[in-house]
Amino acid sequence: MKKFTLVAYLSIVSVFSSPVFADEQSDLLAIQQQWAVANYELKGDAQIKAFTQLSEQSAQFIENYPDSANSYTWNGIVLASFAGAKGGLGALGYAKDAKASLEQALKIDDSALGGSAYASLATLYSKVPGWPIGFGDDDTADKFFKQALAFNNKGIDTNYLYGEFLYDEREYEQAKVHLLVAQAAGIRDTRAKADKYRQQAISSLLAKVDKKLKR
């Protein structure tokens, strides 16, 4: 059985490949910045409280922009991260809600935010337990990762997340390829906090990959 852990789940790319109005962009950046704090810097009850508030905020984001793929994508990211923070089988409800939100984002515009909804769904499918407990499926995860890369093959997040997936699949050489691309992406000005932690994770995973490759 897969262990359902989505802590430090994702900080999906913020390349605005679809039109974003000024107010929507401001609201999106606020959610992204608060997500980085909740996901990386808080623990225990403080993290649960932060994600509770952030999930309410991301739900309001959808109400404010019901036709935006960006709002559904980030609502899905928040809910998936909330599931990871809670942990265990009790988090599956949040994971399913995240899946539904991300699927709605794809229906609206699958290219939004550089294909972020695909990368988010891929990570969910790779982390959630499979049938009969959950909907997890590695083949589906791999398919969604490749669709995400078709929209943004140089992005830090999709390449890191795919590299992590490939590492878990023991595809170490291919994992290193994607992790090096993620590392080369650097740190974005608008996502500095999240990217700082992401780069630390990349370096740590690359060290593990290199150990596997030397054996």
Textual characterization of the structure:
The protein is mainly α. Helices cover 72% and strands 0% of the residues. The chain has helices at residues 22-40, 44-64, 69-86, 92-109, 112-127, 138-151, 156-168, 172-184, 192-214.
Largest sheet: none
Structural class assignment: mainly alpha
Low-confidence stretches: 1-20
Tally of strands:
0
What is the helix fraction of residues, given as a range?
over 70%
How far is the first residue's CA from the last residue's CA?
A: 27 Å
Q: How many H/I helices?
A: 9
Computed Rg? 16 Å
The shape is: globular
Strand content: under 5%
Q: Roughly what is the average pLDDT, rounded to an integer?
A: 91
Write the H/E string, N to C. Answer: HHHHHHHHH
Explain briefly what this protein structure is:
The protein has helices at 22-40, 44-64, 69-86, 92-109, 112-127, 138-151, 156-168, 172-184, 192-214. With 215 residues, it is an all-alpha fold.
List the helices and strands and how they pair.
Blueprint: H1 22-40, H2 44-64, H3 69-86, H4 92-109, H5 112-127, H6 138-151, H7 156-168, H8 172-184, H9 192-214
Task: Name some characteristics of this structure.
mainly alpha; 9 helices; 215 residues; globular
